[in-house]
Amino acid sequence: MALNEDQMQKLGADTVDVLRSIYDPEIPVDIYELGLVYDVQVSEDGDVHILMTLTSPNCPVAESLPVEVEEKVKCIDEAKDVEVEITFDPPWTKDMMSEEARLELGMF
Fold first, then answer.
1. Whole-angstrom distance, CA of residue 4 vs CA of residue 99
2. Coil, helix or strand for 10?
3. What is the largest CA-CA distance in the chain?
4. How far apart are the first and last CA of the chain?
5. What CATH number should be reported for the domain holding residue 77?
6. What is the pLDDT of residues 6-15, one digit of tens each?
7. Rounded-to-integer distance, Cα 66 and Cα 69, Å
8. Does some domain include residue 46?
9. Pairing mode, if any, of strands 48-52 and 37-42?
10. Which of 22, 43, 78, 80 is the most buried (most CB within 10 A)?
């Protein structure tokens, strides 16, 4: 059964809420506020595609963080298939962090 527009928006918002509960182990800020999440797309079928990056290609959690993101988003009832795509284009920089993240890290 296809999701309507409201259900798709709710699934997108719920996905962002889950992303805000996942923290980079080296930085005490969630991956969404860090600017590691570039895009969240939700289909009418309830599929979720997350385009994200890591702080660096040599990030110590390069193997585990995408799996954690996928597993946690799959726990949302409406989410059917969840795909996490890692990209390094554009490369992550501190400028991608939200004001909240910069405040948390004392970068003002």
1. 33
2. helix
3. 48
4. 48
5. 3.30.300.130
6. 999 999 999 9
7. 5
8. yes
9. antiparallel
10. 22
- Boundaries of domain holding 22: 5-93
> Of 44, 46, 43, 25, which Cα lies nearest the Cα of 34?
25
pLDDT value of position 60: 86
Domain membership of residue 40 (yes or no) is yes
103: in domain:
no
CA 58/CA 72 separation, integer angstroms: 23
pTM score: 0.92
In a domain, 32, yes or no: yes
pLDDT in tens, 38-94: 999 999 999 999 999 998 888 888 899 999 999 999 999 999 999 999 999 999 999
The per-residue DSSP string of 53-82 comes to --SSTT-TTTTHHHHHHHHHHHTSTT---E
CB 15 within 8 A of CB 40: yes
- Report the number of distinct structural domains present in the chain: 1
